[in-house]
Structure formats: C-alpha cells, structure tokens
Amino acid sequence: MTRSTTRRTGPAGILDRCRELVRPALVESVGGLHPWHAETAAFSLGWAGAGGEPLPGSQGKGVRQALAVLGAEAVGGDGSRAVPGAVAVELVHTFSLIHDDIMDGDEIRRRRPTVWKAYGTGPAVLAGDALFALAVSTLAEVPGPAGAAAVRRLSLALRDLVHGQAQDLLFESRPWTGPDAVRPDEYRAMAQHKTGSLLGCAAAVGAVLAGAPASTVEALDRAGRHLGVAFQAVDDLLGIWGDPRITGKPVYSDLRRLKKTYPVLAALAADHPAARRLTALLTAPGPLDEAAARRAAGLIEAAGGRRATTDEAHGHLAAARDCLDRVGIAEGAREDLRTLIPYLVDRSG
Fold first, then answer.
1. Any residues with CB less than 8 A from the CB of 286 and at least 6 apart, and which?
2. pTM here?
3. How far, in Å, CA of 19 to CA of 83, rounded?
4. Cα–Cα dist 11/269, whole Å
5. Range of the domain at 187
6. Is 2 part of any domain?
7. How far is the C-alpha of 158 from the C-alpha of 135, rounded, in Å?
C-alpha cells in the first residue's frame, strides 16, 4: 500500500497532511449519525455554524489525528491504516470537550459559543453520547485481531480520561491550603489521565492498527501521555496569561473561576512571601474581580508558579522525546514526531 498524501515538512504541513488523509472518513462517519447529532457534532468540530450552515475551511488542528497517522508510520505502516483509529480518537476528543464544557459551565470555545450554549444542555449531552458510541463502533468494525486490540486500547484510554475528569471536578471542592489541599503531583497525575490518556492512545492505536510490537505501542503511549501533561501545563498558562484574541477566552479566565491549575498550585507550594499573599487573596470571600485576578496573576508569577509550569511542560516534552528514542521508529515518522511535539507545547493559543 502506498501513501495517499505527499509528505510535507514543518508542523503545519504535517498536520495538514494527516488531516487530509483522515477528513473524508471522519466526515462520512459523522454523517451517519442522527441528523440532529450530526449537525451538533459538525458545529463542535468547527465545520458548521449553529444553524447547520457549512463553514468551508474551518477545522481544528487535528493533533490526535496526526498522532494516530504518525503512530502507524512510525512502525513502517502506511498512514491510511491508522484512519479508523484517528477517526475514533477525534470523536472521543470532541465528545470529551462537549461534556467538559457542560461540567465547567464554559460558554465560549474557539471564539464561538460552546455546544451546550448554542443547542442546549440536553442536545449537547446526547451529541456527546452519540460521538462516544460512534468512536467505539468505528474501531469495532476493523476486522481481525488489530481491531479488537484497538478497541481495548481506546477503552483503557476512556477509563483513564473519565478518571482524570473526576479528579479535576473533585479538586474544586478541596481547600487551597492545609493537609487536604491539592498538591502539584496530584494535579500532574490528573493531567496524565484527563489529557495524556487520549494523546497516548492516539499514537498507540495507530501503531496497533499497523501491527506494531507491544513494546513500540507502549513507548508511543507513554510519549503521548507525557505530551498530554505538557499540553495541559501550557493550557494552564494560557488560561491565566493567554491573549484572548488567540485563546478565545476572557483574560484571567481560570483565575476568575478559582480553578486549581498547575501555576496556582506550584505558587502556593513555594516558600515565598508572594505565596502567602496569594493564599490570602484566594481564600477571601467572594469571586475574584478583574483587578483581584490581575493581582493574583502577579503573585503567581512572583512566587515562581509561571516558571515552574513552563519547566513542567518542557520536562515532559523531553520525556516524550526520550520515549521515542528508546524504540526503533521509521526515520521519516520520527522526524515528523520530533517536529510536531514542540509545536504542540510551545503554542501561544
């Protein structure tokens, strides 16, 4: 089997190539849903407006799709063998975002209303459920032992994802200080489950569908999980200091929601006067207004929370590279993965 797309260089070229390979199957898959769910899913994926009108050229980065394709290519397989896995992980990712926005009460994503805000909570929940079911059936239809192994891989990732989501929600009810406070290592474990599990699954499932040995599959899964922690760390930075024109979220959005993110937890754990002032600010009654959120951001930076989060991201980036270097991977795919990984972490929005 020959490659159906021409190899390109640079992060944008790699993502474009993989999206072009996966997009027809993803469109066909979503199109087979109940029309209501298909419209809602198309809106969430950025293909259509809230009335179902098409938005030509609008699409996400396709990170998980690319990792699946590169996972197959990493073991010498054609990227097309990973397409069912790429479709499945993209569907699960979309499902998780829809439900995550409902749980967090977020009204904006990618500078547009979230699905629940545009369609209502009930239709959003149903659309997410439909995408979840479609993801599993997509892999279940792959014939032979590779299909069964891919379903098991996705099921384990889903278990970890919802475990991480539960941890994240429970963090909200825990205090900022004292023996029951959330520690940075607990947050790291949550991020590996909530964000890393699906990134790891994406790379691993592509390799599974291409017939890779177990050692290579596990190495790709570990690399993706490290990438997920780094990805979450950068999201946390953007949630405080990101440019709203790029992130699509209000300035200091995570702080104003009093969300326990890595920069805040790292700052609170520091032995620094700014950490004590930050504690007083966060534990004061009432929500943070914009002025208080700005002060909190300054205290987090002064206590080292911003630097600690950047170091956390780059430490996991290095660990992801190390996982790739420990196994035999086809050179072209290794080069693409090493090109793509820092781009995913060192992003500005």
1. none
2. 0.92
3. 10
4. 36
5. 11-345
6. no
7. 11
